[in-house]
Amino acid sequence: MMKNLFLFFSLVFMAVGCSSDKNDEVLIDDGKNAYERIALKYMEGIDDESGKISSSWGWWKRVLGKDAAGAGVYLSNNTKNANWVGGLVSAAVASVSEMFSLQTANSYPFRDELLDKVASLREVSNSSNHLDIYGFNHYVVVNEVLKDEGLASVDLVKLNEVVYDITFSEVSNLGLNPPFEKEAVLGFINRLQVFENLGSDQFYETMYEFDNVEEANHFKMISNSYKGVFNADIPANQFAAYSIEIEHAVSKDAQLSQQTKDVLLFEMATYRYGYKYYSTLFE
Q: How remote is the C-alpha of 86 from its chain's centroid?
């Protein structure tokens, strides 16, 4: 069933994606770059609490931040041999491990509420992002991993390793033939779990690998601008619209190499689908 779901959405995304406009360019405003301009547009009118997601979802934002970072960090450390499926495994391990590392009891009551939410994610798809399908399938995989009731009783010392094994199996079930990189991925995850502030200079310098300092700074500016809107707790569909517009700007940004674009596009697809996936708990 899961494999069929993956194949169906793969065909949908590929078909719609062929119609994207390849001639658009990033717009530049006097005094503000395109990313700031887009962020300001979506941040308007959210000074009060009326339009925001419940503030109680802050716990889930920590999980979602690790979801996206798990994908981006993997890709930035493997730019010469980018393997999207390997990034999918890394992101899902980061996601589920973060969920359970934050639990204090041997139960996870959120599980039943999250399961079977995948179909609703179609509402926030972006066919112009060539890595969109991996953001979507991140939550197909997470959804399947969460069905393993044994995770609730796993010793935290062994948690990452157990989650990797389950995740690798689920990604394999999709027919994606993931590379077996257990030691490398667990190394990323162990380093990633140390960080709570995913916008700090230390986070970027420790977790991401860039050959070009100027490009690294541009990447950090875009990433932190994006996380600023993410942390504003705007409604899920509004965040999806914002993310899609930013992803389009990234894809046309001449200051970014294709490898760096891919890191951002993979992370943003994961954020966009994750925002929708987790925010269903508060609908």
A: 14
